[in-house]
Amino acid sequence: MRIGGVDGVPGGWAVCLLEGTRVRWSVLPDAAAVLAATAGCDAVGVDIPLVLPVGGGRRSAEVEASARLGRARSSLFPTPPAEVLAAGSYSEACAAAQRVTGRKISLQAWHITPKIREFQQVTLPTGGSSPVAWCVTADA
User: Fold this and answer.
1) Is there a domain that residue 103 lies in?
2) Which tens digits make up the pLDDT trace of 70-86?
């Protein structure tokens, strides 16, 4: 079995590949390189939301995780609504989020929007040899 784990880092993506007892780490420059490196994996977890809520709703996974974490739920931040991806600044993103959700986004959410945008520009593989899962933070 071959498993991949991916997280955004400054300047790219940290990728961990586990195959049997062998572990390989790399830092890749973009989402396209991540797709190439994880091709053939049985599952890939990406710690960036790949599916964004449209409008005022929250993703059910976030609601459930928040409930289970109790007081530790402050370590979670809501996924920004899709409408903020067009924003060119944090203040524009806050205004867009407030229009659709009634709340501004956190600075932390704003800082991951470039990574979210990057994955929005690539096509995740489907069918035959595609991974079983592509995101650890999305509703599925």
Assistant:
1) yes
2) 777 766 777 888 899 99
